[in-house]
Description:
Elements lengths: L9 H15 L7 H19 L18 H8 L5 H10 L14 H4 L2 E8 L4 E2 L4 E7 L4 E5 L4 E9 L2 E3 L4 E2 L4 E4 L5 E5 L5 E9 L1 H5 L13
Parallel strand pairs: 1-2
Antiparallel strand pairs: 1-3, 3-10, 4-9, 5-8, 5-10, 6-7, 6-9
Bound molecules: fe (ii) ion.
Amino acid sequence: MTEPKLTDAPDWLYLLREYETLYRHGSSGGARTIRAHRRRVRDALSAVIKTNPALIAREPADKPVTAHLPRAIDLGSRQSLVGFSRALYRVAHRLTWEYGYDRVPRGLRDKYAYCEILGPRGPIVTDRLILGFVLFAPNTTYPQHHHKGIEESYISIAGAWSENDAAVYAPGSLILNRAEQEHRITTGELEPCLLAYAWTGAAERLTSPGMRFSSPARSA
Ligand SMILES: [Fe+2]
């Protein structure tokens, strides 16, 4: 049997095309660093799509927070994000939600999870880029952390949230965290928050990102 490829799974391919659209269109707000990041993400993504990468079957998995996913997708199905949210809806039952940390603070276990759709661990296999989603329940604080050697951007799909208490971000906003930049996330009281994210960096970093909170996670 031949190994499955991206073109064998049109729903994944359509979702990647929606990511490509998000990173191609829209403004970088005049920020050179954001313009360069957007270009890096979409160039890497276009190159990956062209190679028709392998697909790994990953076991779908839920976490408590995924009870909020339908509402988050509904909220995302508005205005400019409708195509993206519909494409996500088509693969929602195949997503592998996880925590990524060896020790998850107890207060976060029911309120946070992420899933990858493209990266070294699949389901769409590449070591050039990681794409995924992170989902937060209403009223969540995601503790301070940073990513060594990895540049991260979030595109807000649903909900209102803040990073480092600096601003409130709405659907469509793009937030860039450069490598090693400390960040802490809080979400609004009424709605879940769904973010699409992209990580760029050297292949060996993307293969073992070593997720850790910046201060010891409290288990209370
Ligand atoms: Fe982060």
